[in-house]
Sequence to fold (1162 residues):
Amino acid sequence: MARDTTELSRRDVLKASGTAGAAGLAGLAGCTGGGGGSEYPPIGNYPVEGDEVVFGFNVPQSGSYSQEGADELRGYNLAKKHLNNGGGWVDSYENLSGNGVLGKTVASVEGDTATNPDTARQSAQRMINRDNAIMVSGGSSSAVAIAVQKLCQSEKVQFQCCLTHSNDTTGSECVRYSFREMFNAYMTGQALAPVLAEEYGENLKFYQLYADYSWGQTQQASMKKFFTEVGNWTQIDSVPTPLGTSDYSSYLSDVPSEETDVLVLNHYGLDAANSLPQAIEQGLKQDMEIVVPLYNRLMAEAAADSIEGIFGTADWSWQLSDQYSKTFTEAFRNEYNKVPSYAARLAYSQTVQYAAACQRADTFYPPEVIKQLENHQYSNAGLGAETMRKCDHQAQRDVLVVQGLPSDQQTESKLLRIVNQTSRDKLGYACDAGPAAECSLGPYGGENN
Amino acid sequence: MSDDADAVTDGGAVAESESAAASGGSGLASLRERDDFVVIATAAVLVVFPFLLIDVFGAIGDLTGFSIGGYSGLPSLVLIYGIVVIGFNLLLGYTGLLSFGHAAFFGSAAYSAALFSQVVPSPLLMVVVGTLVATLLAWPIGFVSIRRSGVYFAVLTLTFGQALYFYALGPGAWLTNGDNGFSDIAAHGLFFGAIPLEAPLTPLYALNSYTVIYAFTAVMMLIAVWVANRIINSPYGLIFEALGENEERVEFVGLNVFRYKLMAFIISAVFAGVGGTMFVIHEQYIHPTTGLYWIQSGDFVIMTVLGGTGSLVGPVLGAFIFEYVANVISGVSLPGIGPIGSLWRFVLGAVFVFIVWVFPRGVYGAAEDLIGLVTGGGGGDDGSEPAATDGGEAE
Amino acid sequence: MIPLQVDIASILLNGLQQGAIYALLGLGLTIILGTMEFLNLAHGALYLVGAYVGLLVFRETTLTNGLLYSFGVTTIGFDGGFLAALVVVPIVGFGIGLLMERFVAEPFYDRPETDQLLVTFGLALIVEEIIKNVIGGNTFQSIGPQTIFGFNVSQPVALPVVGLFPSWRLFIIVIALVIIAVTWLAIERTDFGLVVQAGTRDSEMVRLLGIKINRSYSLVFALGAALAAFAGLIGASIQTLSPQIGTDRALLPAFLTIVVGGAGSVRGAIAGGMLLGVIVSAMTQTYSQWAQIVLYLFVALMLIVRPEGLFGSGEVGE
Fold:
């Protein structure tokens, strides 16, 4: 997995950047004129010299989300393998040859974000400055994604968001150099509300607990908005819980069980793995329905005994039967002997989509690649027709509503069942509404500045 | 390079240090030469540091296939943490007080400088404001904490730090942008924005690893070393050291122990404040976990001890090792084993325990002993042990 | 909305349950600190080990990561149930305590407390990393049993005033209080306990009296470790397990507990743990955003106003 550093040495790049002068970015400005005879001015790590192009895979290898990080890394490495040697989606993408990208072999560097925004930034900085990564991808925890995408914007290096669900990532904190394939909290609300209104009825009363950080706050606001609008539900209260709380019994004791019809636990990953089982222990499921807006594998595994019948949303599932989902699942299973989580799909998809955009642009020049991704319409990522919207870089796509299986029907790889694939036509928001209203993407850089 | 710690720690066998205040003047005179030496040596190291870290290590990395080279940005980061731990060491290594809450000063300086930059985007004024806030915060916290020693002191500083952390993450999010992190930092270049911080220092390609922000940080580092060196070799420094050795004796001499401890605490917070501000100028970003969480305070402890308490530049060495392992070694792949990835923390923990166990004076002290042994200079004299290593039980 | 007495009752009950775990942790830490004047920052690591040993004994666990997994081991554990864990975990903790006293603590008795803090701090880091790298960084389900001693504890029970309360948590309160009581009696009523008591008051004196202090040291350390491991098992029965829980859930609370209760004081650890538990639970049910902040500020205030703690002599560790 070590990066093969035979041809291109970093010295070449340094040599090139020497002429960039005081206006360039520290140590990264590319070459002016010399080198590959490129038609674009140097920006970020462009131009790519030598016959390798480096992608940076920045995932949590330690800390709370290391399990997800490991699966993301599997997705990234599979994508790298397919881009270089063919296989998986690469075979069916018309622009991709399975022979590298734009004639260059894809190499990669890895980093450990430790689920800590600053560690993640350091790691990305290293990939950009030392390893000349032309694209960085990662996430897991919206705080990390937001921190790294800001860095990438200022370094003019592409960032492909992996697992980040906060509205802010493509809302108030959005940047030009970052694209998100995953859906967001707002869309979760839109997808869940109709299903729940139909399942549980109208005019109900709901009570929310939410993790007190950007994701949890936007998530609970979205749930409130759509439960109120769609099912005419009323919110009793919405209570913040500090990020990383492990004992929710006090919060749960406070839920008024006589009045409450639905309890929404706006917790993700580790937090949900604790709050959900504890809510069930407390007997709340006897009096009310419980909803966990966003499922992930970590949470489903760590709360396997408690998820029966619990509704939530998910990015993707290997159980989907379309061609692309099946191809990816098959390739992943062959490589790693297990089924992919949606984190792996995101990682794989974001890498392949980026490579395809470079091919379409016929250059690694970031502003051109960005333009290829903006308003790109595609239906080859396992979720039917999608559009990468230009105004906020948020994919407009379907969202899965899922439900936990009873313990006796669960298998190691199958803990959830798909209830509904909510069409993207019923989701999303206009460019001047919802989270997108707060988004201003910033400059492309380069001559388009 | 190796002499300066002697200069610092010999101090004329600290056992007699009750007379420190009186003998300080004459002691200073004899140390004058070495005094300059530390600063000059530091300056020399600062000049070659980025070249070594980025270019030389990078070239070795290219030759061997192990990506061990540094990257632009790392040298400044090492220096920033270096500034913090130089101050931290004044507290831990000399006065013998172990604080688990110095992130509070680092983080509060970073946040206040970041907020201030939105009004006045001048890096120099940011340093002034950030440091001022850290100092003002250190006074009450120190005033309260210093009255307790040992574990009580550690826990007290920890509690203040943690309270700030949870405030910044939760109720204070309107100010700090909470978990999204604060990134609207508007530090313009130096000299009223004339020189952008990210620019290379010179247009010469060979010096490409040198940026304006590095030069800025290096100057701050040099000032920090100079100031710390002056403090250590002043009567104050000798009293700090004496406090770590034996508090009662200092008290018997009639000195106000509380006052000197508080002074040491505040001085260390000033360094943390400078470091915190430089961090935010350098990174253009701050997050509660980086700025205020107790793990950050713990990292300061690790860096200081790893490098070597009780010597001026030892902790800086610790900061270098820590940041290098965390940011570079963690990305190295070993043949047969694969990427080191998350194992780096294990390696760090093991090295740390080893150091504490076998070399209480840290890597720097061990190197010094080794050099002493080789040159037959009698090795590490026990008198230069850090303050904390004896007399603990007697307290 | 909810009557006040319900609030108060549930605050107390939740506080008691959380406080019982704090008390177990504080108790273990305080007897080690009191008797040997040894500061153990690896106390959280003992909690972590207790939780993972509990996991291994309690059920079979599927691995998806880590060294063992890469060597082809896909499941670990004995599926022995909770009662077995209840027996095994303290024994393992006791054993680890003996080893730790002999090989880690002893070389550091005569070194300053800063060194003790540092070496155990590093040790905690290593233990956490070993567990993570061997078993994987996964988060595992909590290990609460369905039934114990023939009682079904998976369903909540209806209590007067409070309403529904998880019966397993009631059981935890009972079992933790029993263990605390037994420890208390052992210290109050046995010869061994006398040494501990005398040690926590004046270890110098005990040594001067010629009591075979080394053997007692080992026992005290092992007992403290067993208590921490036991707390880990209890904690893991209601909360998920991951390698980070040692520092997050155990180390800081343990230190806060003994500081509030008074370092070296057995009574203080119990009372301090309960007090902190109730404060946290009261704050989370009223002003949850401020719960952690108030907790830390309370401890700071306590240290300022009453530095010797609730029951401490104020002597140890000063």
About this structure: Confidence is low (pLDDT under 50) at residues 1-25, 378-395 of chain B.
